[in-house]
Amino acid sequence: MGLSVMIVGSGAREHAISLAYENSPQIERIIVTPGNDFIAFGRKKNVIIYKGCSLKKPETILEIAKKYSPDIIDVAQDDALAAGTVDLLQNHGFKVFGPTKDAARIEWDKGWSREFMKRHNIPHPEFRYFSDEEEARQYVRDIYHKDPSKLLFIKATGLCAGKGALKSENLGQATGNINKMKEFGDAGKIFLVEEGLKGEEFSFYAISDGKSYKLFKSAQDNKTVDDFDKGDQTGGMGAISPARITEGLEPEIEENMIARLVSGMQEEGHPYKGIIYFGGIALNGKPNTIEYNARWGDPECQVVLPGLKNDYVDLVLASIEGRLDKVSLQQDDKVRVCVVLTSRGYPNDYSEVKGKRIFGIESTMKMPGVTIFGAGINMNDGKFYANGGRLLSVVAEGNNILEARERAYSAAAKINIEGNNKHLRNDIGWRDVERFLKEKQ
Asked: Which of 55, 80, 98 is the last residue of a domain?
């Protein structure tokens, strides 16, 4: 009898992870909790969606693990990691993939994370953190008095679903963003004021067993809701992989950002086992650090993980069992583009879209080189309905960025939401398209 795996999370990222497990001949059954209806649609293997858990309450996840007794549990979501889900499941004898609460602190406590970077000589921007708003306002007044055009970011130190980093280009914006920190509740009680780095952003992924690591391809996410990097911060509107901006930077990224994280965590007594997300920025031809996350990015996972040629189960077990140095990680040479379709109004009020019908998914799934990963989708009588902000990820592959991008947008055009309620960005991958076209001239 084959293995069963339980994946903890609910979005398109977890859908992509479930597909990586489904592609393994070792896996027979996949449980996703809390999941979403679309994850189980049209699958080749037995995929069970179990909605009865809270990602912030590890004991509810433990109950589901006891019910299904999976051979592997993959804790893929940030709230669950921050709540200590890995620790609790391990203490009950389960084989768990993902960092412990102490190791995942690299994501859930951004103040601690910056101090860790300082201790281990990992390049990072200047920062200070505050709990007193007036003290922070005085600090930014002093900064803008010296340099009125300074770029700053005001960041909640806790988890905010990718929306807690607020860009400030002048004193008025900075003080306004300091005031907004209270909107993030406990996550914004302590917040960072840090130097804004002007360059091109990217992300890089690795898997670690606490001592060694293996590198995946790079990616580039698009965080703001509108074209031209305008509008509010979101959980991610699309991504490409690989990101050409990292070409030539990989040795430095590996040495200064990945190796130092793994060795630093080991030195401090919190061996890091799981996926490392390094959010970087290319600054004058050098990589610098925006942040670390303790899991796959969303939507980056949807464009990086499908390029894996290994059996994902082999990598995961090697990480859990501390023998990653014995495994060779193999990836294809395809380019992938992800376009995220959201409810109109996201990331703010999209309540009017909830329950609206989504058309065109099934025919789009049949397009060659295209995969649809579901997030905020409910199903009823075989029909699809909007049930969230980010609804689905349309991912297309190609031999180059132009081919993959054209295929992704052709697919996205076939999907509609009742009442003209679909929103998407139209410029995903534009930087690499420009690079590609320049090379062809």
From this structure: 98
